[in-house]
Specification:
single chain, 213 residues, alpha/beta, Monooxygenase, Leucine-rich repeat, LRR (right-handed beta-alpha superhelix), 7-stranded parallel β-sheet, disordered N terminus, LRR_dom_sf, Putative F-box domain, leucine-rich repeat domain, L domain-containing protein, Leu-rich_rpt_Cys-con_subtyp
Length: 213
């Protein structure tokens, strides 16, 4: 049925409109769609709630934009906030705000790779809520054992962890993770400063653990 004065897409129900917006890969396009009208704004919001995967790789993001998107992605399972060539400007303040999002407790995969603007403060706050996490990448960050202790407390289902070039973690923190995360299968220690005998001690705790160096 033709409706005079309205574009055909404006006649679509919100759910179908949201399905179309889910197909958009560019968050710039989503932001533009969101600004068209109230119905499109609602469609974008519903589309975010349908997403299981969200990655900001290759995008220039700041705390406000990242928090805004994650807060609407209620069913999110996999979240990627890696450093990009555009220099992702996520800080501890952003991680603290993201930790309050409804989806965080259901995340199974999280990447904070290369975010040099974050510290233990933000990571611990976020990790304390990720109780379903199976895969974690915090490589290239400046975290210390404090973050590792939070991981061992909060992530009993952890299977893989990437600590690539995390030069401030020590044997104490690594042993705590391996001893308490009983489902851990793989740990990437490339570029860390832990000695060879530390790897031996980790294998004593978990003989099946794959240690990548």
């Amino acid at each position: 049925m033709e409706v005079k004065g309205d574009a055909e897409i404006d006649c679509l129900p919100i759910d179908l409109l949201a399905h179309i917006f889910v197909l958009l890969k560019s968050f710039t396009d989503l932001a533009q769609a969101r600004s068209v009208c109230k119905k499109w704004k609602q469609g974008v919001k519903v589309s975010l709630a349908c997403r299981h995967n969200l990655s900001f790789g290759g995008l220039k993001m700041d705390d406000d934009s990242a928090v805004r998107l994650v807060s609407h992605a209620y069913n999110l399972k996999n979240l990627g906030i890696p450093r990009s060539r555009w220099s992702c400007q996520i800080t501890d303040a952003g991680l603290r705000r993201i930790s309050s999002a409804r989806c965080v407790s259901n995340l199974t995969s999280l990447s904070l790779w290369g975010l040099t603007g974050i510290t233990d403060e933000g990571v611990v706050q976020l990790i304390s809520r990720t109780t379903s996490l199976k895969h974690l990448n915090v490589g290239g960050t400046f975290i210390t054992d404090e973050s590792l202790f939070a991981i061992s407390r909060s992530c009993p289902n952890l299977e893989t962890i990437v600590l690539w070039s995390c030069r401030h973690v020590t044997e104490t923190g690594l042993i705590d993770v391996v001893a308490k995360c009983l489902k851990l299968k793989s740990i990437n220690l490339w570029g860390t400063r832990v000695p060879q005998d530390c790897r031996v001690n980790l294998l004593i705790l978990n003989p099946l653990l794959q240690i990548k160096v």
